Known about the structure:
heterodimer; A: mainly alpha; MetI-like fold; B: MetI-like fold; 2 domains; 12 helices; 77% helix; flat
Amino acid sequence: MNSMIYKRKAPxxxxxxxxxxxxxxxxxxxxxxxxxxxxxxxxxLGRSAEGFNEPWYDNYQRLFTDPYMKTALKNTLLLTLCxxxxxxxxxxxxxxxxxxxxVGAQFFRTVYFFPIVISATALGLMFNLIFLYxxxxxxxxxxxxxxxxxxxxxxxxxxVQWLDWKDQAHFLFTMFMPVMWQYVGFYFVIxxxxxxxxxxxxxxxxxxxxxDGWKRTRYITLPLLRNVLCTCLVLAITGALKVFDLxxxxxxxxMPENQGWLTGTYMYDQTFNRMNVDYGxxxxxxxxxxxxxxxNVANRVFRPSEDI
Amino acid sequence: MQNGKNRAxxxxxxxxxxxxxxxxxxxxxxxxxxxxxxxxxxxxxxxSLPLGEAFTFDNYLVAWQRADFKNAYLNSxxxxxxxxxxxxxxxxLAAYGLVRYRFPGRSLLYSLIMAGxxxxxxxxxxxxxxxxxxxxxxxxxxxxxxxxxxxxxxxxGNLCFAIIILMxxxxxxxxxxxxxxxxxxxxxxxxxxxIIIPAAKSxxxxxxxxxxxxxxxxxxxxxxxxxxxxxxxxxxxLNEISSQAGVNYGLMASSVVLVVIPVLVVYICLQKHIIxxxxxxxxxG
Lengths: 308, 285
């Protein structure tokens, strides 16, 4: 990228200043202030600090000994893994399939992307209705398929042993499934856009050389899609680490029995419900550090070198 | 033989695609059907069509009476529209500068953007709130200022993602186009507007849509800055209804539909433009 057009650097200021001014005031400054807050003692939202913690790294010590934090980390890392495998995986399969058809391709794009349009509040309410203990959609379906045990009392009243989708045995599925389901379409759209940017000439050349179907996908599409896939991967990792609203609307604070914390929900709860503003800030710092580390690893492993 | 195999492959392709489509459409159809069903019946029989006895419009009447949907829609569209316009303009410029120029500190700025994408909104909101109170934007009770107080952090919150996406696509624009335009006497700004934007049109549309939706759906920032009833935006309104509805599942269903339907309409209109942008492809020719 050594074009002479871009030797003169003066216009660069106009390109970069607006964005970085915004980021500095509304992202970087607050973030640094937030890091400073982790060392301070803050009694409540909007209150000023009452001095340093004793010892100053007290919150970090707490971070590594807090059992709920351990649960939250475990769940979140599991969610990240599931997100990468299922979300991006399903999106990739669907994108490759849609790329091979003509009729209905636009319909599928429209439909797959649809859940992302919906606010997590609405989706949370919807999934609460779907997974409702007594007479939710899933349980009604299971009952009609004969998968739920029930007995009919002499009075004609039916007693059903409903399946509790939010109990200890099922909550991970009930929590992760909507989160992953919602954003498949997101990666799908990015991947389809990437597929459209691949020149048809390449496919024609490949067809002349006798490469078809799976070979075409394996040796042309996937390598050319690598950059876009890598972007998806990084987005999936950082997205999973800050998942908050859907689990929050569906489960509230840590249900069931403090087994269901995610880093996002635990941080919110500490900051806004328990008023541990400085400890909440510390969890936020951990989320960012994890995001940087994990996506750097992803980049190292998957990103092709820049000069291709 | 070859033909038959192709047909089978095509059949399986459509089957898989349709199955996933079913998972994304059916839950919404289910909610819409049940929003027209009499209250008590949802729990016993939610799959049939709500006809005759079971049909009711009450759930909507109750929802509309209890909450000021019109005003909330107006607030939401003002906020999200403004955020979208500014994100697209500012992020486009920055992405172009970062992709095409080589200068000291470039990789540092890139890392800053990557890092910015990982900041969860709750890690910045407390200092932002204080800052805006000091600037007399937040907490004044003035509706327009409160909307502005949501808009500013939302622009910043969407920028990093937008820049990353746009950089990816601007990178794939062949530099030959720009060089020939330069030889024809265009300056960088003309190149940006006449070559880069048309070539990366599809990704600009993608970024615009995401910025709009994320802003519209961002309950967290809204609930922080919009505290008075006349300031409330649509997701905040839904959250409030849901916390009051209790076991009134019909009301929940109808409120979900009221929030979802207008977005769906806007979405379908915009979607056409995205597809057009996707297939136009200035690069191919």
